[in-house]
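User: Fold this, then the next.

Assistant: Folding the first:
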Amino acid sequence: MVKKKTFLIAEIGINHHGNLSKALQLVNQAKNSGADAVKFQYFKPEDIYNKNSNDYKSLEKFYLDIKQISKINKFCKKKKIIFICTPFSITSFNMLKKLSPKFYKIASMDFNNEYLISEILKKTKSKIILSTGMASKRELLNFKKKFNKNLNRFVILHCISCYPTITNEVNFKTIDYLKKIFPKNLIGFSDHTIGNNMMKISLNYKIDFIEKHFTDNKMKNGADHKLSADARDIRNFRLFENDLNASHGNNLFNLKFRPDTKNRNKYRRGIYFSRNIKKNCSLKIDDFRFVRPVVKFSLQDLKFFLNKKLKKNVKIGNLVDKSFFK
């Protein structure tokens, strides 16, 4: 089970809709809700689509230039939240590296883009967070072989590149496989499901990182908003994680760790006489009643009193004591 706080990335991505002011607001909300980092994307539309593509035209409105990205980076430093960014080309990386981010993110679409990954490894000392969406086993093993000398630079994220991902597509057992293939790497989960239940469940797999899209309004138009977390979701996740970690504790059958040890005498059954009994009577089990609290003797001590003779009269409700017996 989880014993440490998971590094949580609020992926603002393009949920700012190309508006710098909105981007800064989202950074502030992410910080206040408990995220460790925010992630943005730096691209020009031509890094992803041809100019004659309809997708190119729709992507133009989500674009932030390097000056705006730089302002976001400075704002993150001011707010003491880690700035992460995804470059979508070597050109965008060369601009982005001037900001010296602690992490670069490689999107699932570039899992097999060894040229971009190699440039980042060669020109920076930053860690690379790598999403494995759409990757095959062969591609995964080829990646390990190709970058074996630099594997310690990578954080590997289990990812399903469906927007949104439905529950029976999540396949968390993949995390166990990633841990087997990359035993020395930090492993995480890039969550594209709706809500934060899968974030919570992923904690059972002892992950190190969680990446989740982040918005201030899940009802906004745009593919990423409905599968995003908002500030309330992040706070709820952190509270859940804190409760989960706090609940592990110790083996309570060592009584020094049991918080309820102090209640043993109060709630366990003691031994009392069930009726008025004259001296010299030999006692049977029906002569006793067992009710709260334990004062001197508990049920385990009953064997010491069975078939013993009384040396004086007792009354119903008297607490059993050795002084009554011969």
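Now the next one, as you asked:
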Amino acid sequence: MKGALRTLHIRCGDDIRDKLAEAGIEGDFLSFADPAWLGPPPASNAWIAGRAALIAERTGLPRQRIRADLGDAYWRLARAPADYGRIVLWCEHDLYDQAALARVLASFAPRKKLPRIELIAIDRFRGIKRFIGLGQLSVAQLASLWPRRKRISRRQLVLGARTWAALRAPTPELLEALCKSDLRVLPFLKAALQRQLQELPWTKDGLSLTERNALAALAKGPRSAAEVYAEAQAKRDPQPFMGDLFFWSVLRDLLEAPRPPIAVSAATRRTAWHKRVLRLTPEGRALLAGKLDWQTTGPLERWVGGVAVVRGAPTWRWNPRAGRVA
């Protein structure tokens, strides 16, 4: 690649960094791993500190390390249009990647002068039965994607900015309106945003899709948290996007609720979270049977992007039959 443009590769994680180098695809690498789907969004004047605190609370990772990594990522993202002649965005189809893509595009949208920005985005790969992400691909398979990159247009930048605003909005109306609009310039965005809306309480039982999948994974008996994660994400979720630490935070909220639908076996309470054995409680079985609405039991506060799911807030719900917010 002698004489090529100075290139920055941006990906929401480190999973392909070394493989790109092995493939001979030159350039610097930026891991922009802020989970843009995760709420609540902090005040703009405390963005880095607020995001670091939120991610640390949800994952259990050290806040100072997260803050340092996020600070570096946002600084490099802001500098990228001036420092590079080409920026290449690598992503797949899921909510994590599509939300991160929107966040990055939104940061570039106000700029009048931009370098060449290119996108590599896929939702499948020949020979892989269930494609989940770019991290599954070999060095050779990643290299085969390089010629398929396409230049980002102004329409895509504008749509990224609109999407980022909708993800931070205090009601789901902007997200739903986006889902009803023409999103073909970012072909994987609609399904990803619908997956975000499915994290709202559902009309039939008050559970989010992730919460229901977790309970369903325990329907046949006790299982470890790691087994619940594998079952819920790999087999039940139509578009898995949540890493194991974020999934554990969902289980933790269920365990700590006033009327928990799951419980930890006494013998495993002090083990690492993924080894803890979980079982359904009577509340959990009632939820799966459709005999109880989770929101009537006073669950812990949670957020779907900028939408608060908490007692006293407007009761936004996902209607699976209508395929829309109710």
